[in-house]
Structures are given as C-alpha cells and as structure tokens.
Amino acid sequence: MLFVTSPDRDATxxxxxxxxxxxxxxxxxxxxxxxxxxxxxEARASEGILARDLLRRAEDELxxxxxxxxxxxxxERLVASTAAGAQQRITGELPSELxxxxxxxxxxxxGDNRSRLLRLKEYPPQASAPAxxxxxxxxxxxxxxVGNRITLGRIDPRxxxxxxxxxxxxxxxxxxxxxxxKRYALVACFLVETRKTLLDHVVDxxxxxxxDMCRRARNxxxxxxxxxxxxxxxGLETVLAAVDILLDSAHARENxxxxxxxxxxxxxxxxxxxxxxxxxxxxxxGYLDELCARYASLRRYLPTFFGLSFQAEIGSESLLAAIDLxxxxxxDELKVLPVDAPYDxxxxxxxxxxxxxxxxxxxxxxxxxxxxxxxxxxxxxNLHLAESRRHVSFWNLVYDENQWANERxxxxxxxxxxxxxxxxxxxxxxxxxxxxxxxxxxLPDNPFATVTDGGLHLKRPDALEIPERxxxxxxxxxxxxxxxxxxxxxxxVDRLCGFTRELRPLSGYEPxxxxxxxxxxxxxxxHGTNLGIAAMAHSVxxxxxxxxxxxxxxFLTETSLKTANAALVDYHHRLQLxxxxxxxxxxxxxxxxxxxxASSLLASFYPRYFGYYERAIAIYTHTSxxxxxxxxxxxxxxxxxxxxxxxxxxxxxxxxxxxEHYTDTHGFTEQLFGLCxxxxxxxxxxxxxxxxxxxxxxxxxxxxxxxxxxxxSSVDLDRIPEQWDQLVxxxxxxxxxxxxxxxxxxxxxxxxxxxxVAKALTTLGRIVKTIFILRYIHExxxxxxxxxQLNRGESRHExxxxxxxxxxxxxxxxxxxxxxxxxxxxxxxxxxxxxxxTTKIGNIVGQLRAxxxxxxxxxxxxxxxxxHRHVIPNGTYFLNQAVHDPNxx
Length: 889
Prior knowledge:
Layout: H1 10-24, H2 31-46, H3 51-64, H4 72-92, H5 96-105, H6 116-121, H7 129-146, H8 157-169, H9 172-177, H10 180-246, H11 253-263, H12 266-293, H13 295-298, H14 302-305, E1 310-312, H15 317-330, H16 351-354, H17 363-380, E2 383-385, H18 394-397, H19 401-414, H20 421-442, E3 449-452, E4 455-458, H21 468-480, E5 484-485, H22 486-497, H23 516-528, H24 533-537, H25 545-554, H26 558-574, H27 578-581, E6 586-595, E7 604-605, H28 607-610, E8 615-624, E9 629-636, H29 645-650, E10 660-662, H30 670-679, E11 682-683, E12 695-697, E13 711-714, H31 719-735, H32 741-749, H33 756-778, H34 780-803, H35 816-850, H36 857-860, E14 871-872
Parallel strand pairs: 5-14, 6-10, 10-11, 12-13
Antiparallel strand pairs: 1-2, 3-4, 6-8, 7-8, 8-9
Helix pairs in contact: 2-3, 2-4, 3-4, 4-10, 7-10, 8-10, 10-12, 10-17, 15-17, 20-33, 22-35, 23-25, 23-35, 26-35, 30-33, 31-33, 34-35
C-alpha cells in the first residue's frame, strides 16, 4: 500500500498519484511519446484500421508502453490527423479534372432536387428492362469517371471500404462543407466501390428478370394447358370416333363415308383436329412459345447488357463468341444470324424449334437461350466481369497463389487439418464404418426407423414431446413475469450491460442539440418495431423527425448495431441461468419471411405464404443454444438458405463459439456438409425428406447388412487427395473472411460438372452427410438436440413477430440498408428482451425454490426465455434522460 488514508490537500493527491506512477513504472505523455504514437497510428492506418477503432487501440498501446494517458481530446486529435493524412494521400493523386467532376456530382441537375451522387446510392427496384438500363447507364457513368484516374492500389482495401461507407452516410450538402482533401477522398473511394456494386446489381437484376420472365411464361403455359386439356380430350374422342367409323368393316367401304357424315359434322371434326394439333404444339413447345412472346421485352435491355466486358474461363469461349455475334448483329455489321453460329448452350429440347427447314436459326430462341446461359455461367463463374466485386474469377475471390503460399502453413494449423489428405480419409473411413455398424446393429430395436421394401421408413416423427411438468413450469413463469414497456425494458437492460455505449457515431460527426440518449433509444424502437421515425416522432415527446433521422444515419450503422448486439449476447452468456439452456457451443439458423410493399431487388415471390402476387423477403438469423441471436442477414426468398449458413458462423464476433450447427431441410446441401467439415463445424440438419436421402458407399467391399438397400451409389475418394490443398485454401479463405461464404457456396453449387474442386467438395460432403444420417437414425440424443435447437429458433421467430408489429409487419422500404437496419434493430430488441427475461426468470425460479418447489434444471431448460406477451411494444413511449456521459457518444 502506498497510502492508507485519504489525503486532505490537492497537492497531496498529486504527490500520491506521482508515487503510484513511479512505483508502477509509468511515465508522462511527452513530445517523444507523441511522435512515437503518431508513427504507430500511421502504420495502423495504412493497415486499414478504422478511425473509430484507432482511438481505443491507441489507449491500449499507451498502457502497454506504461505511459500515463493524456486527455481524450489529445488522442482524438492525433487520430483525426492520421485519418486526414490518409485522405490527403488519396486526394493528392487525383487529377484536377476529376476533382471538378466530383464537385459536379454533388450538384443537383436542373429540374431535379437530388444530386447525381445521391442517385448513385439508390438500391435497385425489382428488375425490369428500364431499371436494368438505368443501372447500366450509371455503371457506364462511373466507368467513364473512374477509369484509370483513381488509383488506390497502395491504400488498404479496408480503409477504402470504410471511407466509401462514410460517403454513403453523408448527403451532398454535408460533403460540400468538408475540407477539399476529405471531400475528394471520401467521394473517390465511394465511386470506386460503387462501380463494383453497380456491376453486381446489374448482374443480379438480369438474373431476377429472367427468373420472373420464366415464371410468367411457365404460368401462362400451364394456364393454357389447363384450358385446352379438356377441349383437346373431347377433340381426340371425336377424331377417334371418326377413325372407328372409317375403319368399320361391318359396312361396305362406299357406305362408310355416308355414315361418317351422318354421325359427325365436318365442322366439328375440323375443330377437333385443330384442338388436337394446338394441344400437341402446347405439349411440344408451349413453354418455349411463351418465352418467345416475351422476347421483345427482353430485347429492350439485353443488347446493352451484352455490351459489358465479359471474360470467359476455359471451356466457355463459345459464350463469348455468341455475345460477340449479338453485338455485331445489333451494330448491323451482320444482317442475319450465321448458320454456323454456336448453339451448344441451347437446351436440347429446343433444338427442333431452333433450326428452320433451310438450316438457318431462329434468332429469338437462340438469343433467349444465350441470355439464360450467360446468367448460369455468371453464377458458376464460367463467365466473369473483372470490375465486379462478386462476379470475378473464383481464384480471385479466395487467397491468390502468393497469399496462399504465405498463409498455407498457418491455415492448416488453424483449421486443425493435416497436410496429408490420406490421414483425413482414414479418419472418415473409421467414422463411416462405426456409423454403419452401430446403425445396422441397432436396427431391430430402433424405435425411430426401419428398413422395409428396399427403403428407409420412419416409425414416428422426430418432433419432441413436451412433458406436462415442463408445461406447468412454463405457465407459472410466464404468469409471474411483470408487464413491461419496451422502452423501460431497454433502459433497464442498458443499465445492466451498457450496450448503447457501443452505438458509436461515425468519426467526424458534429453533435447536435437535444438528448441523444433518448433519441438513440427512440430510434432503436422505431426501427426494431417497424414503426418508422415519422410515427415515432409523434409517439414520444420532444424528439423531432430530423433528430431521429440524424441519429439513425450517424449512430445506427451495420457495424455499430452488430457491436451493440454482441454486448448483449456476451452479457447474457455470463448470466448464471444461461448455462442451463446451453454452453454457447451450439446454434441454429433459419429464415423468417416478411412481406414487402416497396419495389426492391431483394423482393421475390413466395407463394407458400404470400400467394402468387405478393412479394416477400427473408431475415436469416443465427440463434445460439442460449436463445440469443448472434447473426442477422437480410436475403431474398429465392436462393436456398443453405448459402447463408456459414456467414453467420464465420462473422460471429461474440463470446459464443458454436461448434455444432442445426438447420432445417432448406438449410442444407452436400457441399455445405463438406465446408463445415473443413471449418471444424458439426453440421446437423433436420431433413424433412430423410427417408428419400441418398446414402453413399465409400468402400464397395464393406458389408452393410440390412442397410444395403439404402445405398445406391458410391463416391470416388481419389478426388479428395487430388484437390485437398485447394479445398483447404477455400476453407482458410472463408475462416479468415477473405470472401463471404455465401458467394463461394453459390459459385461452387452452380459450378459446371468439370469443376474438380466443386466435385471434390461434393464428394467430401456426401461422406460426411452419410455418416450424419446413419447417426441421426441410430442415436436418439442427436435427434433430440437437433429438434430442441430448432425449437429455440422458432421461439425467436414468435418474439420477432410480436415486436415487429407496425405496418402489419411488412417492410415499406425497398432499400437494402434501411431493411438491414430494421432487421438489426429487431435482433437487438429481441436480445434485450432475452436478457431482461432471463434475469427475471432467475429471480422467479429462486423464489420458487426457496419456497420449497422442486424445479429441475433439465425441465427449466425446456422453458423458453423468449416469452413475450408481457412485453408492450406499442403506444406512447416515455424515455428517461441520459444515463451516460456525453463523451460516450
């Protein structure tokens, strides 16, 4: 102890502080330290570390140097100076004419109240020919502006992306007020990143347009088919009756015709023949005719789309040749489609309609097939666009050769994988043999499944039954939870864990008047309940729409909301009761569909829940075994959810470390099984079509006993050692967040049959899937764990519906960032409810046990802490004054 009594004089306090510093070896922040810190900040900034993170890291670094921290404003000034230096370097390399063009982008054209820069920020509406043309035009504009004049190769991509995100948050009027260096640097980075984004949007719009066109053609064809089926049947009966009369040997040949006209009128027969022929054409090419009927609409944008700078992988050169032919036809260099035009991309079923009698080709059919083939080739990576972000060559997405050479050794260690693939295969064979033997040996007494008539048959559903004692505990707990308003709940939870401290504004913001804490909570509730800021301004006192808009724009970013949500998840994990539900080592993911009223590229038809005329989107969430949501992503309803399973796991920044992951049928593919194995996750989906799943042999000589009828195919294990290093390269790229997992999965799932990496991954996934299914059939504990975790996800969906009550729970905006903002706020509110409930349930259970009630942890674990009927999300909101220091913001 350096002193034991409180000093009475300020000088004494200072003396004691000095003695403590000397004892601990701390020194003052002087000019030498400042220079050292400045160099350190510049080095970190060059690595792409963002300004908002530099402040915190600079303080930690000074503590490591045993330096007494100066005033916060001193470090903030040095950080701001470092960021300004990076901006100055970017601006210094921009030509003067480009700076003039940037200034022009910030001006609103005559007759328009929006700047051209703002137009570039707009998220696309649902795909239509005019919309696609508009976005190609915007891409061409950026291509002309950016060209080779903005060179950011020496700037870390993370810093470029951060500055681009800043530019998106500021409107043109604010940008014009910035210093020239900051203004030009932000807009330049925004233009570079937006050029990539626009190209991705154009490809996605082409994809969506063709999906919608094919859907409409298929619906029109099926409608015609239904209409003419009965008529054609009647016509066929008439024609057959006529043939019977003409072939009737009981009458003389000369009398048959007379009888024929007595029984069947000529006009009736002609109509019957027409109906039969029309139905025959419908059967043969009705769908194709409907596609051709939409060719004119497709042509409104297709020539411009084909004008993009496509590149081809080996084997796809014919597509580039076909695209070049279209360009030459549209420029009148060619008058007709050449007879020798490539058409290997045209579906075989269309060949009869494609080729005319004179050997020439129907251009409309050929060009529709080309549009579809280009879409599929872009999905698979056989065609790519160098300026795109997602549609580049596959090996440009993951570690390139040089990076992989540097990362290889560390990657194998981090993934706990051997360099020798044979060791992996030996382990898989051992697990495979054990799974086969256990499943076969337990089959006679298996209460869940049996093998009869050459197939797997399930004796009962795998759904979990809820014991009566669990239901009783649930009723007692839910009736004991006090009613609470959502704003009071948020404030109480914030006092516990301080999650709002993580909602930091963008660097360089200018504080406005008003209580920011109140406004921040109001904005969270406005977005998380779908109420919107305009309605919220009328539901809370002394908070204007402008202030809510400002706080939403500057504080509620995707990054800050993710960090705040992590604070809630981490706090909940440390609560004593949370360990009863799970250890944070298991999770599940599932999509929840919401209607959308606005036009958006994200929106798609989902007839199962929204009919054939209403569009919807999905919020895909990752839920831990402790009921907390640690991953949120907004996706379209069109693609398979399995594409997004790994994103939430790999982008998890919470204290949770899931190793087992569960999904429903829509969340699984064989390739996903393979990637999860490489990344160290036990993937355990609940398969609705379990009895129809294909099982694979890894050894033809292995006796399968009574399981033999379930195995119809085998896998070629040689593919895995051949591509082992490339598979680990892909896995390491995903683990280290070089590329989002859904992009890699989409590319591999759409890959051509000749793609050896995709085939090797599928082979690996089939082995892992077969082992899992055999264990799922045999082990009741696995079935129980899977179902229990999926039920937790369903509980979270119910809570989300309760909170997201406004506007009938439908999104009224089509902008991706606004939708993502609402989805993130919804996850934050649901986690806040979870923290509040868990705390209260712990108190209730403690009181019940103290009163002599026997409540077993195993039963309590079955009671969801996501009860919500007591939470009041609507009405007038009453928010308290700030509880944090203003410097927190």
